[in-house]
Design brief:
Elements lengths: L5 H10 L7 H13 L2 H17 E3 L6 E3 L6 H4 L4 E8 L2 H10 L4 E5 L17 H9 L8 E4 L5 H14 L5 E4 L15 H9 L2 E2 L1
Parallel strand pairs: 3-4, 3-5, 5-6
Antiparallel strand pairs: 1-2, 6-7
Helix pairs in contact: 1-2, 5-8
C-alpha cells in the first residue's frame, strides 16, 4: 500500500532501512509518529541527531560513550577488576554481559570480526588498540583476556588470531564456555547462559 503523502512514504522508507524493521512495522511506526504531538516528534529527531553528534568511542575500551565522558564509566570505575579484559564484537554484546551482573572486569570492543569474504581484515577492527592497551604502562596489571566472540566461523577466526597475538605477551587467554549455541548472537542469549559461559571459560 502506498500513501498519498510523500512525507509519510519517505519516513516509512527510512524506518524500513533499520535492522529488524520490515515495511509493515515501518508503516506502524510512521503512523504512530504522525499521531503523536509535534513535540514528541521533535524529541525523537533530537535524540537521533544527538547520537550522531555526541556519541564517540571510548579512547580506552572502544565502547560507545558520550563525548564529554571519555574514558567511559566502566573504564573509570575503581570497582572493576582491572586484571581481566573481556573482548567482545560489539557494544550490544558488552551490554548483554553487563546485564548478567556476573562479570566485574573490563572490556574491549572490536567493532567487528575478521571476515576475509567481506574484505574485513585485522586492521579494520580494533585489534591494534587492544594490543597497544595491554602494552601500556597503565594496564600492566592485566593478567587475563577473555575472548567472548560470537561462535561463528568469523568469530572463531578472530579468536584464534587474537590468541596468537596475546600469548607471547604473557597474557592468559581464555574463551567463554560452549554453552552458547553455535551460530547464536550473544545479544540474544539469556543472562543465566552468559553467566555460566563466563564461569566455565577455558584456556585457548
Amino acid at each position: 500500500m502506498r500513501y498519498t503523502s510523500a512525507a509519510i512514504e519517505s519516513l516509512i522508507d527510512e524506518l524500513a532501512k533499520l535492522p529488524g524493521i520490515g515495511r509493515k512495522t515501518a508503516q506502524r511506526l510512521a503512523m504512530h509518529v504522525l499521531h503523536e504531538p509535534k513535540s514528541e516528534a521533535e524529541k525523537l529527531a533530537g535524540a537521533l541527531l544527538d547520537v550522531k553528534d555526541k556519541v564517540i568511542r571510548c579512547s580506552v575500551c572502544q565502547n560507545v560513550t558520550d563525548r564529554d565522558t571519555d574514558p567511559c564509566p566502566v573504564c573509570r570505575s575503581r570497582g572493576r577488576d582491572r586484571s581481566v579484559i573481556c573482548v567482545v564484537e560489539s557494544p550490544v554484546d558488552m551490554l548483554a554481559f553487563e546485564k548478567t551482573g556476573f562479570y566485574k572486569g573490563l572490556y574491549h570492543v572490536l567493532h567487528g570480526v575478521i571476515s576475509p569474504l567481506d574484505g574485513i581484515g585485522p586492521d579494520d577492527i580494533k585489534i591494534k588498540e587492544l594490543i597497544t592497551r595491554i602494552g601500556d604502562s597503565e594496564h600492566q596489571d592485566v593478567r587475563e583476556v577473555v575472548l567472548a566472540l560470537n561462535p561463528t566461523v568469523e568469530g572463531e577466526t578472530t579468536a584464534l588470531y587474537l590468541s596468537k597475538l596475546l600469548k607471547p605477551l604473557g597474557i592468559s587467554v581464555t574463551r567463554i564456555a560452549r554453552g552458547i549455541p553455535v551460530g547464536a548472537e550473544l545479544e540474544f542469549v539469556d543472562e543465566a547462559t552468559l553467566s555460566r559461559a563466563l564461569e566455565g571459560r577455558s584456556a585457548m
